[in-house]
Amino acid sequence: MQSFEYKCPTEVVFGKDAELKTAEKIKKYGGSRVLVLYGGGSAKRSGLIDRIETVLQQAGIAAEIMGGVHPNPRLSFAREAEKRAELFGADFVLAVGGGSVIDTAKAVAIGLAHPGKDIWDFWTRKEAVTGAYPVGVVLTIPAAGSETSDSAVLTDEETKRKRGLNTDFNRPQFAVLNPELTYTLPSFQLSCGITDMLMHTLDRYFTIDRNNQLTDEIAEAVMRVIVRNGRVAHCDQTNYDAMSELMWSGSVSHNNLTGLGNEKDFSVHQLGHELSAMFDVAHGASLSAVWDSWANYVMSSAPERFARYAEKVWGVWNGETEEKAKAGIMLTVRFFRSLGMPTCFSELQGVGIQSDEVLKQLASNCMYGGERTVGTFCKLDIPAAYEIYKNANY
């Protein structure tokens, strides 16, 4: 196990009607004037935004409500939201939604703490983050784990660049998790969320470190729980127990617990980000579309790791190492398909089979034109990324 430092200060409030404690938690962390962000109309139509607004009003907390956060959260919207928060005099940002809303809230919080500086400069490393306004979350989508993570992703829609930023300043002060708030999610959105939380664990599990017993077994347990309850929830989205397990698994999958003492890989996320940036596809779908190709490309570098994954997560105990490794990959792909998720470009809505020129552009974009490599399990450069995209292009 490698040396590590671990901090996950987010207070989690879990259970039925947990959102009724939102005002109490905002006050606990110093908020009195709150910018409330949400995404599409579902949070409004379901009555959740009205309930949150009422809870805040009854507690004497002033609120500015702003909807319209887009999946693959937009830089332009984050800039607009920051200006609105400044005009309102916000001292707290509350995200009501999933990963895109939470990441936007984190961007606004960082922007507010650095007046006169552009948000994007922090995501492109031109500026260092030295603080952030407090953020709270009312989670409605079990998926990204952003409610407990130190990361946030933004997309510059003008340049079609998607970038992530990791800093402890991104950690929300609290996260409200009520599984009942997930019941009205569109089926595809739920499937994307299940895929994302599984991938957050996989991108930590496939590592060059091989002697990390507790972290490995935590990750394997999380993945088994996601698969088991993902199947149930896909058929019955109002199953409270299944949605509870998924909601908590999403939070645990991205708070760094499942990767402690390991070097994170996250090459699948980087490959998927470029698909989202170029084609504006759903994040979870971009991941499932390239995972099969990535796994088969890198499997030979450490087949025993894939074999362990097949054993511990999928119960594949028979066969030689390589046979088990391939079976684990096949069963993962089959699970994605059972959720209605794409596993190649032709199944990825809005993408389809691409020209060789586009594949080369995707590979170059992923590596910042050759300025970096991605991954630690198997380092990928432009030619490697091109091969993975090409093998998914059917």
Molecular structure report:
The protein has helices spanning 22-28, 42-45, 48-58, 75-88, 99-112, 119-123, 187-205, 213-235, 240-253, 267-279, 283-298, 303-314, 321-338, 356-366, 382-392, and strands spanning 11-14, 33-38, 62-66, 92-97, 135-139, 151-156, 161-166, 174-177. It is α/β, with parallel strands linked by helices and 394 residues long. The protein folds into two domains: 11-181, Rossmann fold, CATH 3.40.50; 186-392, Up-down Bundle (Dehydroquinate synthase-like, alpha domain), CATH 1.20.1090. The radius of gyration is 20 Å and the shape is globular.
Short note summarizing the structure:
It comes from Caproicibacterium amylolyticum. Helices cover 49% and strands 11% of the residues.
Tell me the fraction of residues in β-strands, as a range. 5-15%
- Euclidean distance between termini CA atoms: 39 Å
**How would you write the strand order of the largest sheet?**
1-8-5-4-2-3
Would you identify the CATH architecture of the largest domain? Answer: Up-down Bundle
What is the averaged pLDDT score? 95
How many alpha or pi helices?
15
Helix content: 40-55%
Number of domains: 2
Shape: globular
Order of helices and strands: EHEHHEHEHHEEEEHHHHHHHHH
- CATH topology label of the largest domain: Dehydroquinate synthase-like, alpha domain
